[in-house]
Design a protein that fits this description.
mainly alpha; Arc Repressor Mutant, subunit A; two-stranded antiparallel ribbon; disordered C terminus
Length: about 250
Amino acid sequence: MDGDRHAISGPAVMWLGSLRVGRLRIDAGAAGYRAWIENQMIVAAIGDQAESATLGYLVERDFELSLAGHADQASLIERCIAGVHAELRQPQQGSPLLISALVRIILVALLRVSGGERPPPPASGERSALLQRFRQLVEMNFRSHWTIAQYAEALRISPDRLHAICTTGIGKSPKALVSERLAHEAATRLERSALTIEQLGNALGFGDPAHFSNFFRRMTGMAPGRYRKLVSTARAEAATVPAARFADWP
């Protein structure tokens, strides 16, 4: 992952709070899930309850959690993942709502296993609401390449205040959050779409293919074409792993 190797022994969870380039290898006889969760789904799952700020702090970080000694939570997480997979395989009325609820249960289970570390310092209710609204605006407008000033104007605050809210709440600048969302979308489309690099760049608002390639390389450390080839190779190598044990989440 980004040039580093991480080995974990099950039952365990590895969570990546931002875009990473890498691949998952599972030993013979082992089983696991590899999941991508869109930011819009994360925002919906976190919600606006009393523990939402703590959940938000949890999902922004990279962490590994051993589930050994937490059989109840491990079983709960596995059942929820199986439920998400079932809804994705056979969507029904209300599937998005059910998936969001299952993701929330998974996040709360991870929070309990982790010990529930709280964000330092705790954000005020107003700052938390503005941060959540900013995330929603990013979801709607990142493909249009809004400037930070445009986001701030939509929130009716100054760019400096938006910067302070983001860096205080989650330790990242507004620009970094928007760039990560755009890079995540690019990586997802490189994995799932047959579009050419130029077509994909255009779909994401890049008029110049070179601009798109430079952006993706800056964010991930590799060119879009190389990333797509790496993913294709990783899938071929994982072909012996039962497909039912893996799920790409919305």
